[in-house]
Amino acid sequence: MIRTEPHVFAGSPLDRAAHLRRDAAALRELLTRPDSRMLPLWRLKALVTVAPTISLAWQPVDVLTDDSRAGEVVFLGLDGKAGRFATGLDGEADPTETGPLLEGAGAFEEVRGLASRLSANETSIAAQARTLIGWHDRHRYCARCGTPTGLADGGYRRDCPDAACGARHFPRTDPVVIMMVVKGDKALLGRQSFWAPGMFSTLAGFMDPGETIEEAVRREVFEETGVRVGDVMYHSSQPWPFPSSLMIGCVGQAISEALNVDTREVEDAAWFTRDQVREGLRLVKSEQSEDGAFHLPFPASIAHQLAAWWVDNG
Ligand SMILES: [Zn+2]
Q: Of 81, 89, 126, 214, which one has the greatest count of Cβ atoms within 10 A?
Protein backbone atom coordinates (compact mmCIF):
# COMPACT_ATOMS: atom_id res chain seq x y z
CA MET A 1 0.00 0.00 0.00
CA ILE A 2 1.35 3.40 -0.96
CA ARG A 3 -1.10 5.67 0.82
CA THR A 4 -2.34 5.07 4.36
CA GLU A 5 -4.27 8.30 5.01
CA PRO A 6 -8.00 7.67 4.40
CA HIS A 7 -9.59 9.12 1.29
CA VAL A 8 -12.80 11.16 1.42
CA PHE A 9 -15.79 8.87 2.27
CA ALA A 10 -13.48 6.60 4.35
CA GLY A 11 -12.16 6.80 7.91
CA SER A 12 -15.44 6.81 9.85
CA PRO A 13 -14.94 7.77 13.50
CA LEU A 14 -17.80 5.48 14.58
CA ASP A 15 -17.20 2.10 16.19
CA ARG A 16 -19.19 -0.14 13.88
CA ALA A 17 -19.79 -2.49 16.86
CA ALA A 18 -20.76 -5.39 14.61
CA HIS A 19 -21.32 -7.61 17.67
CA LEU A 20 -24.41 -5.52 18.54
CA ARG A 21 -26.11 -6.05 15.16
CA ARG A 22 -27.45 -9.47 16.13
CA ASP A 23 -28.42 -8.36 19.62
CA ALA A 24 -31.92 -6.99 19.09
CA ALA A 25 -32.36 -6.17 22.79
CA ALA A 26 -29.12 -4.16 22.89
CA LEU A 27 -30.13 -2.25 19.76
CA ARG A 28 -33.57 -1.47 21.24
CA GLU A 29 -31.87 -0.20 24.40
CA LEU A 30 -29.48 1.93 22.35
CA LEU A 31 -32.44 3.47 20.54
CA THR A 32 -33.89 4.64 23.86
CA ARG A 33 -30.69 6.33 25.09
CA PRO A 34 -31.27 10.09 25.24
CA ASP A 35 -27.92 10.74 23.56
CA SER A 36 -28.48 8.37 20.65
CA ARG A 37 -29.21 10.04 17.32
CA MET A 38 -30.60 9.20 13.91
CA LEU A 39 -29.75 10.62 10.49
CA PRO A 40 -32.65 10.97 8.04
CA LEU A 41 -32.12 10.57 4.31
CA TRP A 42 -34.62 11.40 1.60
CA ARG A 43 -34.00 10.22 -1.96
CA LEU A 44 -30.57 9.19 -0.63
CA LYS A 45 -29.81 12.79 0.23
CA ALA A 46 -28.60 13.45 3.78
CA LEU A 47 -30.21 16.07 6.01
CA VAL A 48 -27.78 18.84 6.92
CA THR A 49 -27.92 22.01 8.94
CA VAL A 50 -26.71 25.04 7.05
CA ALA A 51 -26.11 27.58 9.76
CA PRO A 52 -23.87 28.58 11.37
CA THR A 53 -21.74 25.84 9.77
CA ILE A 54 -22.80 22.89 7.67
CA SER A 55 -23.06 19.58 9.50
CA LEU A 56 -25.24 16.48 9.56
CA ALA A 57 -28.63 17.26 11.10
CA TRP A 58 -28.77 14.36 13.57
CA GLN A 59 -32.24 13.92 15.05
CA PRO A 60 -33.29 12.67 18.48
CA VAL A 61 -34.43 9.10 17.84
CA ASP A 62 -38.05 9.66 18.89
CA VAL A 63 -38.46 12.52 16.39
CA LEU A 64 -38.08 9.96 13.61
CA THR A 65 -39.59 6.86 15.20
CA ASP A 66 -42.77 8.92 15.71
CA ASP A 67 -42.68 10.13 12.09
CA SER A 68 -44.85 8.09 9.73
CA ARG A 69 -42.58 9.03 6.83
CA ALA A 70 -39.62 7.13 8.36
CA GLY A 71 -38.77 3.68 7.05
CA GLU A 72 -36.55 0.89 8.34
CA VAL A 73 -33.78 1.82 10.75
CA VAL A 74 -30.15 0.84 10.19
CA PHE A 75 -27.44 0.85 12.83
CA LEU A 76 -24.37 2.84 11.81
CA GLY A 77 -22.33 2.32 14.96
CA LEU A 78 -21.40 3.77 18.34
CA ASP A 79 -20.18 7.26 19.15
CA GLY A 80 -18.82 6.60 22.61
CA LYS A 81 -21.71 4.77 24.27
CA ALA A 82 -24.41 6.46 22.19
CA GLY A 83 -25.94 4.86 19.12
CA ARG A 84 -25.89 6.34 15.65
CA PHE A 85 -28.65 5.22 13.29
CA ALA A 86 -30.04 6.16 9.90
CA THR A 87 -33.43 5.90 8.22
CA GLY A 88 -34.88 6.77 4.85
CA LEU A 89 -37.91 9.08 4.66
CA ASP A 90 -40.62 8.25 2.13
CA GLY A 91 -42.73 10.61 0.11
CA GLU A 92 -42.68 12.75 -2.98
CA ALA A 93 -42.58 16.04 -1.11
CA ASP A 94 -39.39 17.35 0.48
CA PRO A 95 -39.78 16.47 4.21
CA THR A 96 -38.33 19.83 5.23
CA GLU A 97 -41.34 21.49 3.60
CA THR A 98 -44.02 19.25 5.09
CA GLY A 99 -44.64 18.48 8.77
CA PRO A 100 -43.69 17.21 11.24
CA LEU A 101 -40.63 19.41 11.51
CA LEU A 102 -37.16 17.99 11.84
CA GLU A 103 -34.80 19.60 14.34
CA GLY A 104 -32.20 21.94 12.88
CA ALA A 105 -33.16 20.93 9.36
CA GLY A 106 -31.54 22.97 6.62
CA ALA A 107 -31.85 20.86 3.51
CA PHE A 108 -31.48 17.36 2.12
CA GLU A 109 -28.31 17.37 0.03
CA GLU A 110 -26.55 14.92 -2.29
CA VAL A 111 -23.71 13.17 -0.49
CA ARG A 112 -21.38 13.71 -3.45
CA GLY A 113 -21.77 17.47 -3.18
CA LEU A 114 -21.23 17.37 0.58
CA ALA A 115 -17.79 15.79 0.16
CA SER A 116 -15.93 19.07 0.06
CA ARG A 117 -18.14 20.86 2.59
CA LEU A 118 -18.74 18.51 5.54
CA SER A 119 -15.94 17.46 7.88
CA ALA A 120 -14.12 14.29 6.81
CA ASN A 121 -15.68 12.38 9.73
CA GLU A 122 -19.24 13.37 8.83
CA THR A 123 -18.64 12.75 5.12
CA SER A 124 -17.66 9.15 5.86
CA ILE A 125 -20.75 8.63 8.04
CA ALA A 126 -23.00 10.08 5.31
CA ALA A 127 -21.37 7.70 2.82
CA GLN A 128 -22.03 4.67 5.03
CA ALA A 129 -25.65 5.74 5.56
CA ARG A 130 -26.24 6.40 1.84
CA THR A 131 -24.87 3.03 0.78
CA LEU A 132 -26.87 1.09 3.39
CA ILE A 133 -30.17 2.92 2.90
CA GLY A 134 -29.75 2.66 -0.87
CA TRP A 135 -29.12 -1.07 -0.66
CA HIS A 136 -32.33 -1.60 1.35
CA ASP A 137 -34.28 0.52 -1.15
CA ARG A 138 -33.13 -1.65 -4.04
CA HIS A 139 -33.46 -5.04 -2.34
CA ARG A 140 -37.03 -5.17 -1.10
CA TYR A 141 -37.62 -8.57 -2.69
CA CYS A 142 -35.82 -11.87 -2.43
CA ALA A 143 -33.48 -12.35 -5.39
CA ARG A 144 -34.14 -16.09 -5.30
CA CYS A 145 -37.95 -16.33 -5.00
CA GLY A 146 -39.39 -12.81 -5.18
CA THR A 147 -40.96 -12.71 -1.69
CA PRO A 148 -40.75 -9.35 0.13
CA THR A 149 -37.76 -9.51 2.51
CA GLY A 150 -37.31 -8.13 6.04
CA LEU A 151 -34.47 -6.20 7.61
CA ALA A 152 -32.17 -8.17 9.97
CA ASP A 153 -28.86 -7.72 11.80
CA GLY A 154 -29.34 -4.01 12.42
CA GLY A 155 -29.54 -3.40 8.68
CA TYR A 156 -26.65 -5.56 7.46
CA ARG A 157 -28.85 -8.38 6.17
CA ARG A 158 -32.27 -8.96 4.61
CA ASP A 159 -34.01 -12.28 5.18
CA CYS A 160 -36.54 -14.05 3.03
CA PRO A 161 -39.48 -15.12 5.24
CA ASP A 162 -40.56 -17.86 2.82
CA ALA A 163 -39.94 -21.12 4.71
CA ALA A 164 -39.06 -23.05 1.57
CA CYS A 165 -36.53 -20.43 0.52
CA GLY A 166 -35.06 -18.79 3.64
CA ALA A 167 -32.40 -16.94 1.65
CA ARG A 168 -30.27 -14.39 3.45
CA HIS A 169 -29.08 -11.36 1.52
CA PHE A 170 -26.13 -9.19 2.49
CA PRO A 171 -25.25 -5.61 1.49
CA ARG A 172 -23.12 -5.68 -1.61
CA THR A 173 -19.90 -3.89 -2.31
CA ASP A 174 -18.93 -3.78 -5.99
CA PRO A 175 -15.16 -3.73 -6.58
CA VAL A 176 -13.91 -1.35 -9.24
CA VAL A 177 -10.29 -1.07 -10.34
CA ILE A 178 -9.12 2.50 -10.98
CA MET A 179 -5.61 2.93 -12.26
CA MET A 180 -3.01 5.53 -12.98
CA VAL A 181 -1.33 4.00 -16.03
CA VAL A 182 2.12 5.50 -16.54
CA LYS A 183 5.13 5.13 -18.80
CA GLY A 184 8.14 7.19 -17.85
CA ASP A 185 7.05 10.81 -17.74
CA LYS A 186 3.60 10.23 -19.27
CA ALA A 187 0.24 9.09 -17.93
CA LEU A 188 -2.70 7.56 -19.78
CA LEU A 189 -6.08 9.19 -19.08
CA GLY A 190 -9.51 8.83 -20.64
CA ARG A 191 -12.86 10.59 -20.69
CA GLN A 192 -16.56 9.83 -21.04
CA SER A 193 -18.76 11.83 -23.39
CA PHE A 194 -21.10 13.01 -20.61
CA TRP A 195 -18.30 14.56 -18.52
CA ALA A 196 -17.61 18.29 -18.36
CA PRO A 197 -15.65 19.50 -21.40
CA GLY A 198 -11.90 19.10 -20.86
CA MET A 199 -12.13 16.61 -18.01
CA PHE A 200 -9.99 13.48 -18.25
CA SER A 201 -9.57 10.88 -15.52
CA THR A 202 -7.78 7.67 -14.66
CA LEU A 203 -9.21 4.63 -16.41
CA ALA A 204 -11.54 2.47 -14.32
CA GLY A 205 -13.84 -0.50 -14.59
CA PHE A 206 -15.77 -3.10 -12.64
CA MET A 207 -13.90 -6.28 -11.80
CA ASP A 208 -15.12 -9.45 -13.45
CA PRO A 209 -16.02 -12.51 -11.38
CA GLY A 210 -13.01 -14.79 -10.98
CA GLU A 211 -10.47 -12.09 -11.70
CA THR A 212 -7.59 -10.69 -9.62
CA ILE A 213 -7.07 -6.96 -9.18
CA GLU A 214 -4.00 -6.96 -11.44
CA GLU A 215 -5.80 -8.97 -14.12
CA ALA A 216 -8.72 -6.51 -14.04
CA VAL A 217 -6.33 -3.54 -14.41
CA ARG A 218 -4.60 -5.09 -17.43
CA ARG A 219 -7.86 -6.18 -19.07
CA GLU A 220 -9.68 -2.86 -18.62
CA VAL A 221 -6.77 -0.78 -19.90
CA PHE A 222 -6.29 -3.01 -22.94
CA GLU A 223 -10.02 -3.14 -23.74
CA GLU A 224 -10.44 0.63 -23.51
CA THR A 225 -7.20 1.86 -25.06
CA GLY A 226 -5.20 -1.04 -26.57
CA VAL A 227 -2.30 -0.32 -24.18
CA ARG A 228 -0.60 -3.26 -22.46
CA VAL A 229 0.17 -3.01 -18.73
CA GLY A 230 2.90 -4.99 -16.95
CA ASP A 231 3.53 -4.39 -13.24
CA VAL A 232 0.52 -3.34 -11.16
CA MET A 233 1.00 -1.75 -7.74
CA TYR A 234 -1.76 -1.30 -5.16
CA HIS A 235 -1.99 2.33 -4.05
CA SER A 236 -5.07 2.71 -1.79
CA SER A 237 -8.83 2.28 -1.90
CA GLN A 238 -11.90 4.46 -1.52
CA PRO A 239 -15.49 3.56 -0.71
CA TRP A 240 -17.64 5.20 -3.40
CA PRO A 241 -21.26 5.29 -2.22
CA PHE A 242 -22.86 5.88 -5.65
CA PRO A 243 -24.31 3.42 -5.00
CA SER A 244 -21.98 0.83 -3.45
CA SER A 245 -18.56 0.60 -5.07
CA LEU A 246 -15.11 0.14 -3.63
CA MET A 247 -12.57 1.90 -5.81
CA ILE A 248 -9.32 -0.09 -5.75
CA GLY A 249 -6.63 2.40 -6.70
CA CYS A 250 -3.58 1.07 -8.54
CA VAL A 251 -0.57 2.29 -10.47
CA GLY A 252 0.04 0.33 -13.67
CA GLN A 253 3.30 0.41 -15.63
CA ALA A 254 2.51 0.45 -19.35
CA ILE A 255 4.68 -1.74 -21.60
CA SER A 256 3.24 -0.35 -24.86
CA GLU A 257 2.16 3.11 -25.99
CA ALA A 258 0.16 2.83 -29.21
CA LEU A 259 -3.51 3.73 -28.67
CA ASN A 260 -6.46 1.84 -30.09
CA VAL A 261 -9.35 3.53 -28.27
CA ASP A 262 -12.63 1.63 -28.01
CA THR A 263 -15.10 4.50 -28.30
CA ARG A 264 -17.93 2.31 -26.99
CA GLU A 265 -16.08 2.29 -23.63
CA VAL A 266 -14.50 5.76 -23.53
CA GLU A 267 -15.00 8.83 -25.69
CA ASP A 268 -11.29 9.51 -25.84
CA ALA A 269 -7.99 8.50 -24.25
CA ALA A 270 -4.56 10.06 -24.55
CA TRP A 271 -1.10 10.28 -23.00
CA PHE A 272 -0.41 13.40 -20.92
CA THR A 273 2.92 14.69 -19.62
CA ARG A 274 3.59 15.18 -15.93
CA ASP A 275 3.46 18.96 -16.40
CA GLN A 276 0.07 18.71 -18.12
CA VAL A 277 -1.32 16.54 -15.30
CA ARG A 278 0.06 18.94 -12.70
CA GLU A 279 -1.68 21.83 -14.45
CA GLY A 280 -4.93 19.81 -14.79
CA LEU A 281 -4.91 19.17 -11.05
CA ARG A 282 -4.21 22.82 -10.29
CA LEU A 283 -7.10 23.99 -12.49
CA VAL A 284 -9.72 21.83 -10.79
CA LYS A 285 -8.41 22.65 -7.30
CA SER A 286 -8.60 26.36 -8.07
CA GLU A 287 -12.06 25.89 -9.65
CA GLN A 288 -10.83 27.45 -12.89
CA SER A 289 -11.81 24.49 -15.07
CA GLU A 290 -15.07 25.83 -16.51
CA ASP A 291 -13.68 26.95 -19.87
CA GLY A 292 -13.13 23.41 -21.16
CA ALA A 293 -9.37 23.34 -20.59
CA PHE A 294 -7.82 19.96 -19.72
CA HIS A 295 -8.43 19.14 -16.05
CA LEU A 296 -8.86 16.21 -13.68
CA PRO A 297 -11.78 15.22 -11.37
CA PHE A 298 -12.44 16.97 -8.08
CA PRO A 299 -10.02 16.48 -5.15
CA ALA A 300 -12.39 14.19 -3.18
CA SER A 301 -12.00 11.49 -5.84
CA ILE A 302 -9.33 8.81 -5.71
CA ALA A 303 -8.65 9.58 -9.39
CA HIS A 304 -7.48 13.06 -8.42
CA GLN A 305 -5.42 11.66 -5.54
CA LEU A 306 -3.76 8.99 -7.70
CA ALA A 307 -2.76 11.64 -10.22
CA ALA A 308 -1.51 13.95 -7.47
CA TRP A 309 0.59 11.15 -6.01
CA TRP A 310 2.14 10.38 -9.41
CA VAL A 311 2.94 14.02 -10.18
CA ASP A 312 5.03 14.28 -7.01
CA ASN A 313 6.28 10.74 -6.47
CA GLY A 314 5.73 8.44 -9.41
ZN1 LIG B 1 -36.78 -16.17 -1.00
A: 126
